[in-house]
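SAMPLE LOG
Freezer: B-3
Tube label: C17
Construct: single chain, 185 aa
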Amino acid sequence: MFALPCRRLTAMGLLASLCACAIAPVPVPAPVPAVSTTSLATKPDSTTTTSPAPTVQSATPKARADRPLPVVDPEHNVFFALGSTELNAAARAVIAELSKSLLANVGTRALLVGYTDDLGSPEYSIALSGKRASTVAAEFLKLGVRPSQLRKASRGSQPFDRPCKSEACRRLMRRVKIQLATRTP
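STRUCTURE (predicted):
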């Protein structure tokens, strides 16, 4: 007889004892039917792990960030750069156009609602959105609009009814919304 190293003998003995034992059969799972991409297209809320066609939105967090952007009226909004309260030429043009309505009718009021993106703390967002509304109000005053026609509000980072996580959507959040209303006698 030949000698085997101790480890091999132990491993072979373990293997032999396992083979000698009666082992219960393992049930084989039923085959999963194949899912076509056309069936995924009819179910946009699918939570499968396969990647659907590019036009179908899955329930992953990335897909939620890729939702269509909210509709924002550019004629009644002034947009700002990240962390800024400075007006650019486009913002000044919007304010100049809307000031014509305010100057022509002293019964017209403007509510200036400041917003920020969701990148800062709530305290920072409220302060920055208030400064943005004040900047827009100051520009209206420079153009001759009466202070009694202006009201300011600071809303922080809640401009839309749903979360907004893409950079394109965050650019839309950094704004002052200008709501005109005519007072009726």
